[in-house]
Amino acid sequence: MRKTLSALLLIAGSAAFVAYALAAPQTTGYHLVKKVVLGGEGGWDYVNADPTTHRVFISRGTHIMVVDPDGKVVGDIPNLKGTHGAALVPELNRGFSSNGQSNSVTIFDLKTLEVIKEVALPAAQGPDGYLYDPASKRVFVFNARSQDATGIDAKTGEVAGMVPLGGKPEAAVADGQGHIFVNNEDKTLLVEFDSKALKVLNNWPIEGCDSPAGLAIDTAHKRLFAGCHNQQMVVVDYTTGKAVAKIPIGNGIDSTWFDPATQLAFSSCGDGTIAAAHEDSPDKYTIVDTIKTQTGARTMALDTGNHNIYAVTAEFGPAPAATPENPRPRPAIIPNTFTLLIFAK
User: Fold this and answer.
1) Contact 86, 80 (CB under 8 A)
2) Residue range of the domain that includes 210
3) Is the pTM value of this prediction over 0.70?
């Protein structure tokens, strides 16, 4: 009886594994549905999409452009100093712009886009990345120069405290249970901290990674996806800090996203590609698509509501001559060529 039961359990488990593995699609089906030249001066950084309204928020340094799902400009949040993007909190109808030059956060109404107030962060230097944590009801901004994170009460706008990170933080994600994970870019570490106690819990080296940039999370299977500059997306078990898989990606990574509905992980790169890998099982991944974008489209947003992907770039001229102060200059952006690329299935 025991042998028979064991055999049946083994068969059932194998069947479940095979069903999971066979769920991998042959391709994502994503294709370019619209290319919109938005124009305007300046560079760009993070892009974010509101899954409830499907508005897309695009940081432009001095302001945030807001477009609808078809790329039509519906509003603008002006007078920002070095914005890198905005954390979106639909449950409170608020957005939080991370302002790197003014060392502040600008809070605005998600519907009207009117500014509610600006919160000074006197102890922070160089706010860059951002994240809303539903467990603590705090927005975190990650400060590149002071190498720490600042927590802000999302309801009151008051600074709740800071946590030192011991290196330059980049992208961050939350598990919904009070744990924040952030890439330490210059030391190639994953830092885990408690979002309520503001205490570092773990520092994990990311095996097989060089200079992590984008970071995404699969909370159902407790996996992190770190997009790395050595053209790898490294999958990490966030209960142990151990790397369980490596996925080849393009050159010039900036953004990484995971869609729990499709089990697809994406990394967008400046070489004009988005690598898409399917999670066949928590430790096995299959590259199912390389979505062609455009050179410079290193930053993207995934709308988990409609599953659209939004990437931004521009046309570029020749790079200026190298100098001792800037040995690797970037190509000059041709004015008024800033472009939004919209991908859908």
Assistant:
1) no
2) 28-344
3) yes
Q: How many domains does the chain have?
A: 1
HEC sequence for 124-144: CCCEEEEEEECCCCEEEEEEC
pLDDT of 329 = 85
H or E element in which residue 8 lies: helix 2-22
Give per-residue pLDDT as tens, 79-93: 999 999 999 999 999
Residue 174's contacts (CB-CB under 8 Å, 6 or more residues apart) are 131, 132, 133, 134, 135, 180, 181, 195, 217
Tokens of residue 27, six digits = 């391709």
The reply to whether 110 falls in a domain is yes
pLDDT over 50 at 45, yes or no: yes
Say which CATH number the domain at 271 has: 2.130.10.10
Tell me whether residue 100 is in a domain: yes
The string of pLDDT tens digits covering residues 203-250 is: 999 999 999 999 999 999 999 999 999 999 999 999 999 999 999 999
Contact partners, residue 194, CB within 8 Å, separation at least 6 = 178, 179, 180, 201
Is residue 129 in some structural domain? Answer: yes
Q: Is 178 inside any structural domain? A: yes
